[in-house]
Amino acid sequence: MISLLIFIVILSILIVIHELGHFILAKRVGVRVEMFSLGFGPKLFGYKHNDTEYTLRLFPLGGYVKLTGDNWEEYKGNPWEYLAQPIKNRAKILVAGSGFNYLLAFLCLWLVFIIGYPMFTTKVGELLKDMPAQIAGIQVADKILAVDDQKIIYWDDLQKIIQKKGGETVALSVLRGNETMQIKVPVEKREVTSIWGNKQSIGLIGVMPSGDFIKVRHGILGSFYMSFTKTVEMTYVTLKGIVWLILCKMSFKESVTGPVGIFFLAKGAIKLGISAILHMMAVLSLSLSVFNILPLPILDGGHLVLLLVEKIKGKIFVKKFDQIWSRVGLTFIVLVGLFVFYNDLVRFGVVEKITKLFGK
């Protein structure tokens, strides 16, 4: 129950931050906002200030803003309406949602680096049978201090070095009890499939971490820099993933998840603590930011496409084109949403459990 509640809070924060971006920029350029709602469904509470009604609704998942004159049926030509604004102002309002999500991702990562995050030590927890480390004499509970005289502290560092040494022999400095020893280990070269679906060769010696970890913290300025570089890296990975999905080099079925998948990810993050929750929020917020700016109907990026069409063809053409564009987009989003939802149910074993339940 607690996991479900935290999951709802996380998703609500992501969506409300997105809508807050639209809200603030709309106000700044002079567009009236009729409603800012937390949640969906029947209204539980409402408060009106100036032109805007702020409401709390029954279903707390997300929220939305309603701009005055944001569709052609309601538009009356008043200067405070959305469609009366010049194209640049409407573009600012559309981009602001994704911009706020992007900023949230950066801030979450900044907090992660300030608060501290767990990093596995180089203590060996398991040896894979008949792999180089076991054959060379590495033992469970050994702590690897260096690889070829290169000092290491974290398991990630060990992994990165070994993966680049495929086909070579490395000298490991190992702490066993109170004794430090040198053990030479040949690194096995093996071909694996990366997250992008392509084959690559990496080095392996057959060791697994013990689970012991160190909490790593950084100063405010150091964390700011690390958050910046991590945000850029995550953006690159997200955009590359989208391109590879479009080019069918990655499996859509294996790579995309929806609310059900996010719920299971949230459950795992909750067990690991606040840093893991913040990191997950950063990943989700950045993904939402990038996804919403894609040039697909219904999404903010789709509306930006309409602004471009309006710039080229004029408002009259857009009025006719808008309804078709929206209907196609709605159909597409619903079909993709249903597929992702069902795929999550299968992937996380929900369908199997339901089948067994009714099978009895």
Question: In words, what does this structure look like?
Answer:
With 360 residues, the chain is an alpha+beta fold. The chain has a domain of 98 residues: PDZ domain (Pdz3 Domain, Roll). The chain has eleven helices and twelve strands. The strands form five sheets. Strands 6-5-7-8 form a four-stranded antiparallel sheet.
Q: Which percent range describes the beta-strand content?
A: 15-25%
Tell me the CATH architecture of one domain. Answer: Roll
What structural class results from the helix and strand content? alpha+beta
Q: In one word, what is the shape?
A: elongated
Per DSSP E runs of 2 or more residues, the count of β-strands stands at 12
Parts with pLDDT < 50 across at least 5 consecutive residues: none
Mean pLDDT across all amino acids: 84
> Percent helix among the residues?
40-55%
Major β-sheet annotation: 4 strands, antiparallel
Distance from N terminus to C terminus (CA atoms, Å) equals 26 Å
Order the strands across the largest sheet as they lie in space.
Answer: 6-5-7-8
CATH third-level topology of one domain: Pdz3 Domain
Q: What is the count of helical runs? A: 11
Report the CATH C-level class of one domain.
Answer: Mainly Beta
CATH homologous superfamily name of one domain? PDZ domain
